[in-house]
């Protein structure tokens, strides 16, 4: 076991040297000459065939140039070149790592990776910015997206459901800026979130009842706080006989449901024609006989259509929004509605918001990287021209006997006000609803 660890450390040390990069670059140039001689035949080869071809060519290249490398170092160069020719080069291992959540590249030699909510610098690097751009364009080619000086900013969805954002010169000063957000192949279930400590049993039961009772839920949180994962998890509570329409800017949701219609916005052509916004899609989704509408993220004028849908019979809809607290979430909705050209008064807008949204679930990423539901707040109405709320649960961190940071959710002892949940409470003998906690 120790021998294997030591060998892995030696491999990593060699791969991260300038010598490795120089030899790999020279061997790559030699390979390109051989590939040009093969012509179209090379394009029909399988990955296994390419691996065998690279192994033989690199071995011959090292022997001919008399480069002092051992067998393991030759293998490492051959593996890197196979990934370069048949895959995505240095990115391939990171994209295959299930623990990696985000890959952030600030120029060819500055790579950061987020694992379990913690961002750390990665030793991986590219040969130069041209090498990095070559890999990025290989990712974009099957997606039909262009990246050049006239179109220096691209946002795209990867085939596995991840998201890629690239900014290059002249907008990016220090080289290509690449951001890759990965998503799990198997979405987290509510039970997984409970096991990970994102919520406890009481919150689990409340959210399950809220979804099944067709409450409208807004998931609020900051960047990389787990909003999409929580929304995916809540979808496990949806009844199977309902038709669900999802509307997203970049399709990220992967709902575990038998009847899902996925809609994705379109940025349009280079000339600016053919644009289809989230607002257009929500408006059209109302004609598609949805039982529930799920908006991946509310960030613009679509907020008006979302509120109207929630107020006109599409109960049980859900969405995410960027905000740091439930109150800021409400302010952001008002601001977005104002930017969208809402024509009514401030009081009418607030009544519409209060009538549309039942619960705001605030999720956050703690300094340790752990993601936790930090608050569940119910919208109870409008009073004195202010949207009134009541916080049902609040997250607190505390230190255990061994100094380990632990979680608890404090119940404020208030029962949900929504009539949608009232019918799910047990009845007393005289027919009144009891105040038993849901």
Automatic annotation (TrEMBL):
Residues 85-362 form the Bacterial type II secretion system protein E domain. Gene3D superfamilies: 3.30.450.380, P-loop containing nucleotide triphosphate hydrolases. InterPro entries: P-loop_NTPase (IPR027417), T2SS/T4SS_dom (IPR001482), T4SS_GSP_E_ATPase (IPR050921). It comes from the Bacteria. Residues 418-438 are annotated as: Disordered. Transmembrane segments: none annotated. Belongs to the GSP E family. This is CpaF family protein. It comes from Herminiimonas contaminans.
